[in-house]
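Progress against Task 2.4 (sequence-to-structure conversion) is shown through the following example record, which the project officer requested during the mid-term review.
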Amino acid sequence: FLFRGRIVYVSRSRVLERTTTKPPGTVLDTGLGVRVATGDGVIDLQVAMTRSPVPWIWPSPFSRPKPGDVLE
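Structure tokens generated for the chain above:
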């Protein structure tokens, strides 16, 4: 997905037994992972990274999504 113009690659996630009425891609909560609405429920993004301009783990303390942000 895209976050602030950068491609983010997910390497670990889990599906949550939760439903939502928010549009797909909407960040619902940020804690240890990032909980995001999907077309069929909620996914918890646990480990992700970006490669450009330098490799870094996502989300970092400096680049963290907020509830309501939309991942493309």
